[in-house]
Structure formats: C-alpha cells, structure tokens
Design a protein that fits this description.
By secondary structure, this protein is an all-alpha fold. About 65% of the residues lie in helices and about 0% in strands.
Length: about 180
C-alpha cells in the first residue's frame, strides 16, 4: 500500500509507485503545463523536480536557489516566468513532501526522456543551483553525484562538469576568519 493511499490522498485507481509511465509527482507538475506536448511537459516537470532535489539536499532551499531554479526552468523549459515560478514551487513542495520516495522514480523518468546532452545540461544546472548561494556543500555535491549515477552518466562526466564549479565547492574554500 502506498503512503498516499494510507493517508487517503490517492483513489483506488491511482497507480502504485513505479507503475505507469509517470509518477504522481511528475503528473501534478505536468498538469500545470497544459499547453505543452505531453512528453515535453513531462521532461520539464521531471527536470524541475530534480533541480529541487539538489536544492533540498541540505534540508533547506534558499531564496537564491529558488531564483536560480526559476531562471533555469524558464531558459531550459522555454516557459514564461509565471509558469516557471509555479512549476518550481510545485517541484519544491513535492520534493519536501515526497522526496524520499519519489527522488529515484522522477530521475528515472527524466533519464527515459533525456538525451546524453540533456543529462549533461541537467548536471550543469544542478551545480548552478547549488552554487547560487556561493557555496556547494558536500551534501549537495553528493546528491549531484548520485543523480549522475541514476542518469547512467560516467564518473568522468560528473567530474567534467564539477570542475567548472570548483571555486564554489565548500570543501575547497578557505574558512572565514573570525
């Protein structure tokens, strides 16, 4: 029995986790993207959700990270600002509420739709979101590495992108002197 059914939030006809082509999380975000073709909407929804996954890696999503996600969803999703704001807010909420159970499923959905180039762009965007507050924490770095694995990218692909953000890696920054 899924947690949603247990809480009375899913009807009997709702698919269990992993059933069907999309997760409930992706479906909720896709509904906000009515004017896009279904696969494109699913791509944008899963892209936004994975962005929120790394933003929430340290258990908080800063205003800078939110603005970075909105900008990225506008640019990569081709959405107007109003829609990008809604999609990012929904992705953040879904991640906070269901992240533990949905993270892998949504990333797998993105992997199904994405080309290698799309996956590399996503990794770059994940680092950009993490660096929005001028520091990429070890937790954020580790989540990005896990996502790269789930996207079936090689370690060298991860390192190639991370190298561009090395000055933002908290582990390599000098501590502030008091």
């Amino acid at each position: 029995m899924s947690i949603l059914k247990f809480l009375g939030l899913a009807g009997d006809d709702a698919p269990a986790a992993g059933e069907g082509d999309e997760t409930q999380t992706v479906r909720k975000i896709v509904d906000q993207l009515d004017n896009l073709e279904r696969d494109r909407a699913t791509f944008v929804a899963s892209f936004a959700y994975v962005l929120s996954r790394v933003a929430h890696a340290d258990m908080k999503i800063s205003d800078e990270e939110t603005r970075a996600m909105e900008k990225i969803v506008m640019e990569h999703g081709g959405l107007p600002e109003e829609q990008a704001i809604i999609v990012v807010q929904m992705a953040k909420t879904q991640n906070v509420l269901f992240g533990g159970t949905e993270n892998y499923l949504v990333t797998r959905e993105f992997n199904r739709l994405a080309s290698r180039e799309d996956k590399m762009q996503l990794i770059d965007c994940l680092f950009a979101v993490s660096a929005a507050d001028d520091s990429i924490s070890s937790a954020e770095n580790n989540v990005i590495r896990q996502i790269a694995d789930e996207l079936l990218l090689e370690h060298r692909d991860f390192i190639e992108v991370r190298t561009r953000f090395r000055d933002k890696l908290a582990v390599l920054q000098k501590p502030d002197e008091a």
